[in-house]
Amino acid sequence: MPSDNSTIIHVQDLIKHYKKADKSAVDGVSFDVAAGSFFALLGPNGAGKTTTISVLTTTLSKTSGEVTIDGYDVETQATEVRSRIGIIFQNPSLDLNLTAEENVRLHAILYGVASYRPTYSLMPDSYKKKVDELADILDITKDLHKPIKTFSGGMKRKLEIIRSLIHNPSVLFWMNPPRDSTPRAEGICGLTCKISRKKHNMTIFLTTHYLEEAEGADQVCVMNHGKIVAHGSPAQLKSSMIKNYVSIKAKDMEGLTRELAKKKISFTNREKSIDIACTDSKIHGLLKSIDTPITSVQIHTPSLEEAYLEIIGEKIQTT
Questions:
Q1: Do the Cβ atoms of 172 and 86 come closer than 8 Å?
Q2: Who's near 64: CB < 8 A, 6+ residues apart?
Q3: Any residues with CB less than 8 A from the CB of 39 and at least 6 apart, and which?
Q4: Which of 67, 115, 211, 260 would be a feasible disulfide site paired with 305, CB 3.0-4.6 Å?
């Protein structure tokens, strides 16, 4: 049965254990994804991300646990689930012998959006309106009826976006968008805005090796060794793992350190600069309280990548 209005993806105690494996690939994972939200699943290679998504998209059976999409069980109601999801795969899965529109039309027919029509002009107006709207948004209208053999990687990626959205899915799974073929001027956040994520109440489920793509997510889930090791908004993860700080310089660095020590202001001496942990709202007051003439001020706001590295304790693999 359909889910309530707040939760579109429900995962409870998910376990996937492959035969002959020493340990479970996914080990007791639980999370909920709100309808219409932008959710990012992060983690190093081997963390269990691909296995988790394979279960969510009905391409892999689970060992145990509860997994539903829009209230439908991914195993016992797989057909209902598949009709409600769109997938942009890591590697292009287009038919190079067809035009861009023919690729989209084939997908639409397979998903029951419309019955078979031999030409674009014979397709229903609702289909043509949707295709034209998305092509215009993603700026490939003039190439819509051209063979895709000569398309660049970025154009193919845009076409895959159109194809994955033509059946109006409730959830769009975006699998590790490669850096060289993702439309970088806008990135994931800009593209999700362009396809009116909030307007259509569509949920974006992203896995990526490029953490800047996840900065705009509503919620981020970090996996490692088959388990969830962190879960929250990007701001929550950053604030819990990395402190904001202000880096200051002065001609009289020794005098500055003496003053800070005397005033019992905690700091880290970097020799050529001094770092002081401080929230944005308190920076002005901090600088005003220092009497030693300051020659340089740099405010450091932590990134999601910094928080991720603190959580995982290793560099993310990008290959």
A1: yes
A2: 13, 14, 15
A3: 9, 33, 203, 204, 205, 206, 217, 218, 219, 220, 221
A4: 211
pTM of the full predicted structure? 0.82
Burial readout 245-271 (b: 16 or more C-beta within 10 A, e: otherwise)? bbbbebeebeebeebbeeeeeebeeee
How much is the pLDDT for 216? 86
Tokens of 308: 């991720």
Instruction: Give the type of residue at 245.
Output: Y
Please say if the pLDDT value at position 287 is more than 70: yes
Q: Determine the Cα–Cα distance for residues 204 and 40; give it in Å rounded to an integer.
A: 8
Residue 191 has pLDDT above 90, yes or no: no
295-317 tens-digit pLDDT:
999 988 888 988 999 898 854 44
Which residues are CB-neighbours of 118 under 8 A, at least 6 positions away? none
E-state strands within 26-145: 26-34, 38-42, 64-69, 72-73, 85-88
- Domains of the chain in start order, with CATH, are 7-233 (3.40.50.300), 243-301 (3.30.70.790)
